[in-house]
Amino acid sequence: MISETAFGQAAATIGCEVAVIKAVAKIESAGAGFDSSGKLKVLFEPHIFWQQLLIKKINPERYAATYKDVLYAQYKQDHGSYNVQWDKLNRARQINEEAAMKSASYGMFQIMGFNHEAAGFNTVADMVVAFNTGEDAQLQGFVKFIQSNKLHVALQQKDFTTFAKKYNGPSYALNAYDTKMQTYYLQIKNKS
Q: Would the pLDDT of 58 be above 80?
């Protein structure tokens, strides 16, 4: 669990309110980096896996029929519950370990594996190991990611639409990330 002091330090580094960071965490992971059994939260993205295989010059069509639950070309909104995500990731790892790990998002802030360098890690494996140590490491990775991608201004201005567009990608509106983040921000702000 992240202390209020750590949240405060992260907010000071970014230059935004603590409630803004907490709203991001709430929309990304319901505010927790680990599930009820203590396992790191992960969300596997089959369409990203398709892209990552192409980057590695591996033909995804060769595997699509056998691995249709973890490999398809276009984004689909239904990912399934958190409790099946590690199984999906592990199935994808049978095709290619690094591409699979880069195709999932991890922890409280659901940072995509392919963004490991922006989050301050040399490899995706390094990021996952660090994020497994606790939510403080996940918060530090989030702060580095925000700085690397110059998203601090959107958070400072509470411009949740711009933030969601850049943080969650072009499908952000399908999931109403921006409006939900605004709602969570107001709820959190009103409690403090």
A: yes
Structural domain harbouring 82: 42-106
Produce one character per residue of 8-47: b if its CB has 16 or more CB atoms within 10 Å, e if not: eebbeebebbbbbbbbbbbbbbebbbbbeeeebbbbbbbe
Instruction: Report if pTM > 0.70.
Output: yes
On whether residue 122 sits in a domain, the answer given is no
Model confidence band, residue 28 (pLDDT cutoffs 50, 70, 90): very high
Cα–Cα distance list, 119 to 3, 91, 123, 142, 188 (Å): 20, 25, 10, 6, 25
pLDDT band at residue 76 under the 50/70/90 scheme: confident
Measured in whole angstroms, the distance separating CA 84 from the mean position of its chain's CA atoms is 16
